Amino acid sequence: MAAFPEDYEMKASGLIRMWVAEGFVKSNGDKSLEDEAEDYLKSLVERNVVSVRLCNWYGKAKRYNMHDLLRDLCIGKADDEKFLHLKNSPKVRFSNQLRRVSIHTSYVLEDIDEYASSSEMSLVRSFLLVIKLDRNLSPIVFTLSLLRVLDLLEMCKIKFPEEILQLVNLCYLSINCKSLPRSGISRLCNLQTLIARLSFYSYCPVELWEMYELRHLIMLGVYLRIEDDYMKKIVLKKMQTIRGMKLNPSVIRMGFLESIPNIKNLEIFYEVEGSSGKSEVVDLSHLHKLQTLSWSSMFRQYLHGLKFPSTLRKLSIYGCVITPAVTTALCALPNLEVLKIEGCTFKSNETGEEAANEEWEK
Q1: pTM exceeding the 0.85 threshold for the entire prediction
Q2: How many CA atoms lie within 13 A of 291 on its CB side?
Q3: Of 235, 263, 279, 300, which shows the fewest CB atoms inside 10 Å?
Q4: What ranges do the domains of the chain cover?
């Protein structure tokens, strides 16, 4: 936690994914690694080590921060044990035998270029960039063979560095790039978390569905489109989060939803075939661990063909057509706590006309 700037609000999901990637979290088998890490965070809050800054709709902590004095203590301890090196000023020199590096200012990048070529940096396991950066890093950073965590999301948009594909120990990768490589990404066989901010209308590399360790796939600001011929009947049992995925009916028919049986958080943009908005049945009821679902459509998809799992806690619907049958199904969800409906049209089953009656207004 000392890797982040003063007064920085740390995202719970980001902390948890980095902890899991580093191997800090151990599970006894009854809980997932992510659930175990949430218990770690709760324990830190109870001991007043960190404070909750923001909760989600149903009271679950989303962001944390640390008191300045406690952060200073953590920085000192981390430096003594060579656990973490905080580079927030040109005056702060790199120490020997680095394990983790956190960059807070662009003024130190010249030092990075110089130090990256030395043998000392070859031991780095985590490299975090927590500032907006409008220039490229030294290519040597992409060749640190022991890297498990590489966070470059705040860097300027770049072409995906091919050198990253050699980092076989990488478990966590966040990057701002034009597109993902069409081939070779499966070499990152230990990758658990992939977060990418891509150029508009990017395609999903087929090899992503051959990465059995992948747990979280998150696209920011863009929908990643899956090609129709992607399926190889592969089941990703560890996949828990997918955000920013664009699907069409043919991909669903080929078994996409069956390939992610343990998904917990799912964000889908559904491409309706044609512009009529009529769609076939999309059955999610077998996804017994799904808790958060965001479903959107461009052509006013009718939702009467969408079956929800009873485990849903949060449901967001955008740009769809909602009939009374759908609202009846929503009312039957026993665990639903948050319902967001935006840009949707309400229609009756019988006439297909907009149901602007008193009942809907209420």
Answers
A1: yes
A2: 6
A3: 235
A4: 1-81, 96-361
pLDDT value at residue 272: 74
Q: Express as a percent the part of the chain with pLDDT over 70.
A: 83
Q: Give the class (CATH, top level) of 96-361.
A: alpha beta
DSSP codes of every residue in 291-312: -EEEEEEEEEEEGGGEEPPTT-
Distance of CA 76 to the CA centre of its chain: 31
In three-state secondary structure terms, 356 is coil
250 Cβ contact list (under 8 Å, min separation 6): 228
CA-wise closest residue to 67 among 10, 118, 136: 10
β-bridge pairing 61-65 and 216-220: unpaired
**Looking at residue 116, what is its pLDDT?**
56
Q: Does residue 196 carry a pLDDT above 80?
A: yes
pLDDT at 279 over 70: no
- CA geometry: angle 223, 224, 229, nearest 5 deg: 140
Query: What single letter denotes the amino acid at residue 194?
Result: L
Please check whether residue 271 is in contact with residue 298, taking contact to mean a CB–CB distance below 8 angstroms: yes
CATH 1.10.10.10 is right for the domain spanning 1-81? yes
CA 18 vs. chain centroid, Å, equals 11
Q: Which contacts qualify for 216-220: CB closer than 8 Å, 24 or more apart?
A: 216/17, 216/192, 216/240, 216/241, 217/241, 217/242, 217/243, 217/245, 218/193, 218/194, 218/242, 218/243, 218/244, 219/243, 219/244, 219/245, 220/153, 220/195, 220/196, 220/244
Q: Which residue has the tokens 């999610």?
A: 284
217: closest CA among 265, 254, 181, 257?
265
